[in-house]
Amino acid sequence: MTVQDPDVVATSGAESAAANSPRAGQLGLAVRTVAEGVTVVAVSGEVDMLTAPQLRADVLQHLDASSTLVLDLSRVSFLGSAGLAVLVEASQHAKRRGAAFRVAAVERAVTRPLAATGLGEVFSVFESVEQALEADEVR
User: How far is the CA of 82 from the CAs of 13, 47, 79, 133, in angstroms?
Assistant: First the structure.
């Protein structure tokens, strides 16, 4: 949980950054269909125990409706253990359905926990959404 001092006033640079990203405890989700059965879910903000349930519900819903789901974590600033659990569950859910589940991640806040836990080897991790989508074309 993030606690913010109510007496702290944001500077002009921090204001614009804060306006473009979710506040603590909030998760930004943008969903787009790039082709029939191919969905990209772009996530921004912090994925922690407060926001992981929202991510889980959204990802599982789109996995049920898609043959390929790319989870774009390029704008995630924190990935905690609850978020890692969502990724594992999504990967297992996709395998049971015969769907493809891919993760696009470049930020250290995401790649480090994936590498530290070995989860980067459990499911496909790509440096960009484009690379993750191109992996479908090779199949």
Answer: 31, 7, 8, 26
Q: 41 - beta bridge partners?
A: 31, 71
3 state SS for 58-109: HHHHHHHHCCEEEEEEEEEEEECHHHHHHHHHHHHHHHHHCCEEEEECCCHH
Regions of the chain where pLDDT drops below 70: 1-25, 136-139
The confidence score (pLDDT) of residue 26 equals 82
Instruction: Single out the residue of 76, 84, 86 nearest to residue 26, CA to CA.
Output: 76
pTM: 0.80
110 with 79: CB under 8 angstroms? yes
CA–CA dist 53, 2 (Å, integer):
17
Give the DSSP H/E element, type plus range, for residue 126: strand 124-126
In angstroms, rounded to a whole number, what is the distance separating the alpha carbons of residues 18 and 15? 5
Tens digit of each residue's pLDDT (9 = 90 or more) over 55-92: 999 999 999 999 999 999 999 999 999 999 999 999 99
Of the candidates 39, 76, 45, the residue with the CA atom closest to the CA atom of residue 58:
39
